[in-house]
Design a protein that fits this description.
Blueprint: H1 16-33, H2 35-42, H3 63-75, E1 84-90, E2 93-100, E3 102-104, E4 109-110, E5 117-118, H4 123-136, H5 162-167, H6 181-184, H7 191-195, H8 215-229, H9 233-242, E6 251-252, E7 266-269, E8 272-275, H10 285-288, E9 290-292, H11 294-305, H12 312-318, E10 331-335, E11 338-347, E12 350-357, E13 362-368, H13 374-386, E14 412-415, E15 421-427, E16 430-435, E17 440-449, E18 452-457, E19 462-468, E20 474-481, E21 484-490
Antiparallel strand pairs: 1-2, 1-13, 3-4, 5-9, 6-9, 7-8, 10-11, 11-12, 12-13, 14-15, 14-21, 15-16, 16-17, 17-18, 18-19, 19-20, 20-21
Helix pairs in contact: 3-13, 4-8, 4-9
GO molecular function, one term: hydrolase activity
Protein name: Serine hydrolase
Organism: Tunturiibacter psychrotolerans
């Protein structure tokens, strides 16, 4: 459950390894990659958000644009990087609405626009909207301390507000970093049981002083919503958002739910796409357990920005950047001096990404049933095509052989931060990387880059570069994640 630049997992949206790495380095990553645009975001005037009628008239896009969108989306299906569904809309004009690959490989069932996908942390924007709706109804205030609703919370949480949870500025540790999480997530748990994973841990920083993406924040928001409304989160979601917007193909996934037209989740393996071991959907809950279709998510974007969900003031609150370029459940950045609202999601076997540009009424939604960050990259390229920019097609990365005797020198434990370490082992001509409390991920040898051995994974935009000494001993690695470099020292 993560979320993919101001993009939930362009920097972050393939598996829990991606979520783990991203959660640790989000603040640093966003600071580096958004340095050019950050000042513009914070200078934005109160009139910076336009609200659009969902079906306003637009100039008809040429067929060449639609063909290019299909070509760009299709390029991501190479190298087992993407299977799923994509929609691109500009105003009332649907420019692309298509499935790619298989929803269920075992039965040769194709992906299509009406297939349901798990959307991971894109759930957070729905949770945030529910909080703002309850604020409109006077049942809570985002300025309230959370102790008002969680009286038994630790004393260290006394200064945390509801807004801190919404903006990821609470300092509450991300529960996916608990060492028990890897196995714990496979069994159904209640929100109260999930809270036990993090409630007694020290805060990572004083509330409101820093930004760090944490699923724990949105788990607590789910608990607060149930307390102030007296309703189950799943019912509240249906009643306040899904039913009014006609989102009949969306909901909160459940371990016991028989769901027609739901895609199976997969991940890239050493010899092609393989099934994933699915976690209990109770774990994601208000942080990342929703399922949806591209069509329903387009209804959501049109409804949200068309004034059918929130008041204008609440929408502004949701889409105003704070620390980390984060609003409420969405990242907020700028492109060509236009506001861009976006977020991704990642849960085993599924990745998702959504971009909305209010000034042009452009929506790009990519849902995948293969772990990896293809939806993040694809959505960015599809947006560029829609804006009339020139883009290059996705390129295939090629693994090259490496002598079996060379692999042992890379094996070991490497510390990246106080929260994140990587355990690296050799297997089947490559490396298996295990992040703290997370499932393993395979990296393949790509050759020497600038004289340093480099390995890559097909599950995300990540490479590991090893830095041998003059004696050929490896004591340091550099993890490159979507353009951000993080150093790890052998322990």
């Amino acid at each position: 459950m993560n979320s993919s630049k101001g993009r939930a997992c362009l920097k972050r949206p393939g598996t829990y390894l991606l979520a783990a790495i991203c959660a640790v380095c989000y603040a640093t990553t966003l600071a580096q990659t958004s340095a050019i645009t950050a000042s513009k975001i914070h200078k934005e005037t109160s009139s910076g958000l336009r609200v659009f009628t969902p079906f306003q008239a637009d100039a008809v896009e040429p067929n060449s644009t639609k063909q290019r969108l299909d070509e760009v989306a299709g390029s991501f299906t190479k190298d087992d990087a993407f299977m799923g569904a994509v929609v691109v809309a500009k105003g009332s004009d649907i420019l692309l609405d298509k499935g790619y690959g298989k929803a269920v490989m075992e039965w040769n069932i194709p992906d299509s626009p009406n297939v349901k996908f798990r959307i991971g942390s894109m759930t957070k924007q729905f949770t945030a909207a529910l909080v703002l709706l309850e604020q409109e109804d006077g049942k809570l205030s985002v300025d309230d301390p959370i102790r008002k609703y969680l009286p038994d919370s630790p004393a260290t949480w006394d200064k945390i507000t509801v807004a801190d949870l919404l903006h990821h500025t609470s300092g509450v540790p991300n529960f996916i970093f608990d060492k028990r999480f890897f196995e714990w997530r496979m069994v159904s748990h209640t929100p109260a049981e999930e809270m036990e994973l993090f409630k007694d841990k020290p805060l990572n920083f004083l509330p409101g002083t820093q930004w760090e993406y944490s699923n724990s924040n949105y788990a607590l928001l789910g608990i607060i919503l149930e307390k102030v409304t007296g309703q189950r989160f799943v019912d509240l979601l249906q009643e306040r958002i899904l039913v009014p917007l006609g989102m009949k193909d969306s909901g909160l996934d459940d371990d016991d739910l028989i769901l027609p037209k739901r895609a199976e989740g997969y991940q890239p393996g050493s010899k092609g796409i393989v099934p994933v071991r699915s976690q209990s959907m109770s774990v994601g809950w208000s942080t990342g357990s929703m399922y949806s279709t591209t069509g329903d998510l387009l209804r959501w974007e049109r409804g949200l920005f068309g004034g059918k969900v929130l008041s204008a003031s609440s929408l502004k609150q949701m889409t105003t950047a704070t620390k980390g370029n984060y609003g409420c459940g969405v990242f907020v950045s700028r492109k060509d001096d236009m506001k861009v609202v976006e977020h991704g999601g990642s849960i085993e076997g599924f990745n998702s990404y959504m971009i909305y540009v209010p000034a042009r009424n452009i929506a790009v939604i990519a849902l995948s049933n293969v772990s990896g960050d293809a939806p993040d990259k694809m959505a960015a390229k599809l947006l560029d095509v829609t804006l009339g920019k020139t883009v290059t097609l996705a390129k295939q990365r090629v693994a090259v052989p490496i002598a079996k005797g060379e692999l042992p020198k890379f094996v070991g434990d490497y510390q990246i931060s106080t929260q994140l370490s990587l355990n690296i082992t050799a297997s089947d001509g490559g490396l298996v990387v295990l992040a703290t409390g997370q499932p393993p991920l395979r990296f393949s040898y790509e050759g020497e880059i600038n004289g340093h051995p480099q390995f890559f994974t097909r599950a995300m935009d990540a490479q590991i570069e090893f830095l041998p000494t003059v004696t050929d001993h490896v004591s340091t690695l550099v993890l490159h994640l979507s353009g951000t470099a993080m150093t790890g020292k052998r322990q």
